[in-house]
Amino acid sequence: MSKDYQRRNAMEWFKRTKVGTQLIGGFLAVAAIGGVIGMDGILKAAHIKDLGHLMYERELTGLHHATAANVQLLAATRSISSAILASDPAEREEHLKRMEQRLQKIDAELALTEKTFVTPQGKELVAETAKAIEAYEAGLKETAAKVRTEDLMGSRASADYLLKTVRPMADKADELVTQLVERKNSNARHLSEETDDIYADIRVQLILLTVGGLLAGVAIGVFLTRRLTRQLGGEPAEVARLANAIAHGDLTSRVDTAQARSGSVVYAMNQMQEALRKVVGTVRSSSDSIATGANQIATGNADLSYRTEEQASNLEETAASMEELSSTVRTTSDTARQVAHLAQSANSVAAKGGEVVGQVVHMMEQINGSSKKIVDIISVIDGIAFQTNILALNAAVE
């Protein structure tokens, strides 16, 4: 559980880091891997060099000394044989001295051989060989002591031929074999030295390649990082935040364009945001104008409604006046009928002429008053008609 939590924290931390840091970190990691590979190559080359030294100093040198000991062992055997077959005291003593010299060389070569064995099995084998050679040397020395006490052998053709003709040939062959061994040992030494030189060259080359790869990786990482950040104009997280803000209708968010070039993504998005802000401002201004016009239309409609109500009220008053006029007309008609009735009855009431004339005069005065009312009503109707025409004209204009 804790490992998963740590892994998630590491991933979150990596996501929060800048893209430039991530790129440079990636190239540094690659360069570090290259450095590790280079160091591993150097160490492996050093190990190969050490193995070459071990092969020469331990194995080949040990083989050389063991071979030399074997050669001296054979030479000592030949020397004792020559001493036995010698027919001259001086010659016999010379061969015995050579045998003793060979035995001393055997001990020296065996001591040098023992130094090249490091494993317990090898040391045990060297000790066993030393015991065997020691026993053999003791036998040779005992043989030499007996040879000194014995009489010289007589001159024989075979012995003379062996000692004077064949023995120099054997010594010559032994010397040549020794030279072959020395030559192979010299070649091995030269190869070991050449291995050292190759190792030195490989080490220098690997160091140069590793350092060059590290510098090249860092340089390429810095170059790509700067190029990418210039093209983006900022961190990808900031670009994503600005894009999300624009997608959600937030046109107030800004990204610092101090480092952004004119062709970068951040610069283009800021320009797009500015253009969208202008478009939205234009749309908002148009909407405000439309709202103002709508309010004015609503006000005009309300005014028209008010005037219409006034006209309806005036029409109601006109209707009332017309009803009053009708009543007056009816009254006038009744009065006229009454006048006609009075005129018809004038002959019969001639005696009452003065009184009737007075009534007629009075009635005429009422008619005159009613006529004046009719004129007023007609004037009102004309005014109402004039106002109605004005309202109709205003409505048509609006």
How would you describe this protein?
- This protein is mainly α.
- The protein has 3 domains: 13-228, no CATH class; 237-277, no CATH class; 310-397.
- It has 8 helices and no strands.
- The protein has helices at residues 2-16, 19-85, 89-115, 120-149, 157-232, 236-247, 265-344, 353-397.
- It is rod-shaped.
- 11% of the residues are buried.
- The mean pLDDT is 70.
Q: Quick recap of the structure?
A:
The chain has 398 residues and is mainly alpha-helical. Helix content is 88%, strand content 0%. It folds into three domains: 216 residues, no CATH class; 41 residues, no CATH class; 88 residues.
Rg from alpha-carbon coordinates: 71 Å
Unreliable parts: none
Assembly of the depicted chains: single chain
Return the domain count.
3
Structural class: mainly alpha
Q: Biggest β-sheet: count, sense, barrel? A: none
What is the ordering of alpha helices and beta strands?
Answer: HHHHHHHH
Question: Helix count?
Answer: 8
End-to-end distance, in Å?
79 Å
Beta fraction: under 5%
* Average residue pLDDT: 70
Number of E-type strands: 0
**What portion of residues is helical?**
over 70%
Basic shape: rod-shaped
